[in-house]
Description:
- The chain crosses the membrane at residues 12-31, 171-189.
- Its EC number is 2.7.7.65.
- This is diguanylate cyclase.
- There is one protein chain.
- This protein is an alpha+beta fold and 376 residues long.
- Helices cover 68% and strands 9% of the residues.
- It has a five-stranded mixed sheet, sandwiched between helices.
- A hairpin with a 4-residue loop joins strand 2 (278-281) and strand 3 (286-292).
- Helix 2 (55-72) packs antiparallel against helix 6 and helix 3 runs antiparallel to helix 5 (106-121).
- The longest helix has 83 residues, at 128-210.
Amino acid sequence: MVEPELPWWRHVRWLWLSLMSFVALMLLIAYQTRWVYPEIHAYFSQSGNLTGQQLATRARDYLQQGLDLLLLEPDDAEIRQQAHFQIKLAYSLFDIGLYRREYDCTLPSLDAIDELLLRLEGDAPVTATHLRQSVLAPMRCLTRIEMHQLDRRSAVTAEFVDETRRHQGQVLAGSLVIFVLGLGFWLMHELQRRRAAKSAKESLEWMSRALRDPLTGVGNRSALHDDVVAKHGQQMGLLLVDIDYFKQYNDSLGHPDGDRLLRRLVELIQQAMEQRARLYRLGGDEFAVLFECQDDRSLDASCRNLVESLRAAALPHPSHPHATHVTFSVGAARFKADHAGYERGYAAADVALYEVKKKGRDGWQVAALDSREMAG
């Protein structure tokens, strides 16, 4: 049984699967962008996070600058003012909630710096002991904060790298799965397409065989009808050709020779009609020839040419009662190509063929149809 052609909804299904694969890939890319990009932005942003320039580092630098100024000229008013400004900056950068909450050395250090600022604002002398008590302890605290923040930064960096790798692995795995699914969908579609193509080819081959005579390879009666339908409305000529005394030929030489004669006559008829007509085998020794024909004169000329070509070929017929070679009886008619016209034309050609046989065979006759019959 021939498999039916793929319905349209199967093609829609393949399109739907392809679109779903594409949407899934887009969702994965959106997921990667939605979750990884903000982390990248937060990591490399220069404000409000661990990776910006560290406040503790800047505070320690300002405190170091103030200390250097005081060690240079501790009693000079201008130097003391500059040192006061640097230390005040260090204090403001040091005095933040994060440091107060997480580092126990922050409040004592801020108190020590505040005491040093009060001395600098007044006329009190600033000795090395005061500097050691007011500056070195805060600098150690700031250094501790810097190191701890550096460790946290390293941990955040490592976590970010791991998270990025995880996201990349998910995208890679998802893309691989989608690729495999797409490949599978394509393979299924290709196999289905090939099955459908093979089925269609087998169906066409079966139909072709069903419309052809297996012995001679020409069309059969069904093919004749189909070709008439395909020529709808055109003026056609129909020849019914009968091999005279073919049964006697088979009886004397055998059926294999009879089959060879049929194939040889097919070649001869096709050559005589100069490939402008189509040939059909209707039965054991009866053929039909169909071609476009506008007048009876052309139809009569075709019949004459066909009969005389067979006579010229002089194919031996040892059991022919009236001749030494194979002969034809031909009945012909013209008709308009439609169902009714074909029936009338076929019947008229058959009557003309019968008249030729009644008169002794080896000849032809063209049926006369009036204009009303030709018009259908």
